[in-house]
Automatic annotation (TrEMBL):
Domain Glutaredoxin: 1-51, 89-153
Designated name of the protein: GLRX3 protein
Keyword Ribonucleoprotein: no
Annotated GO biological process: intracellular iron ion homeostasis
Organism of provenance: Dryoscopus gambensis
GO molecular function: iron-sulfur cluster binding; metal ion binding
Domain of life: Eukaryota
SUPFAM superfamilies (alphabetical): Thioredoxin-like (SSF52833)
């Protein structure tokens, strides 16, 4: 119940956090109590420093200090914009440049590598929130998705068409 309350408070305040189940590792469970000199769980840490347990977090919430102490979770739309603009040419795909994890991703990587243009990739299989969110954000239902200077170019079919028409390189260089 205490852990559930802590998670509820953190979620209500939009705090970016991760958790560890102390019941999954008795050594960690006992060791953390000794290290922190805090005998109960849950324990909240911010930037590696112990803030306290549920009572302390409730006090911080009541005083309005919790929001100042805890890092906010980045809104999905802001996160997507940041990822799309991570590099001038950004490819969202299944896998990476080194290891494509589907046929469509493999085909687009071959095309991209033959252009000589520098690009970054994001593996959508590693982040379900980005995988689903980007489909809505871009209004493009499939992967891979290619972006140049923050703008959606399209998927594999569009990239193939651009390659066939000779327009791919100028598009990738941001000339179109």
């Amino acid at each position: 119940g205490f852990s559930r309350q802590m998670v509820e408070i953190l979620n209500n305040h939009g705090v970016a956090f991760s958790s560890f189940d102390v019941f999954s590792d008795e050594e960690v469970r006992q060791g953390l109590k000794a290290l922190s000199r805090w005998p109960t769980y849950p324990q909240l840490y911010v930037a590696g420093e112990l803030v306290g347990g549920l009572d302390i977090v409730k006090e911080l919430e009541a005083s309005g200090e919790l929001d100042a102490i805890c890092p906010k979770a980045q809104k999905l739309e802001d996160r997507l914009k940041s990822l799309i603009n991570k590099a001038p040419v950004m490819l969202f795909m299944k896998g990476s440049k080194q290891v494509a994890k589907c046929g469509f991703s493999k085909q687009i990587i071959e095309i991209m590598n033959n252009t000589g243009v520098d690009y970054e990739t994001f593996d959508i299989l590693e982040d379900e929130e980005v995988r689903q969110g980007l489909k809505s954000f871009s209004n493009w239902p499939t992967y891979p998705q290619l972006y140049v200077k923050g703008e959606l170019v399209g998927g594999l079919d569009i990239v193939k068409e651009l390659k066939e028409s000779g327009e791919l390189l100028p598009v990738l260089k941001g000339e179109n």
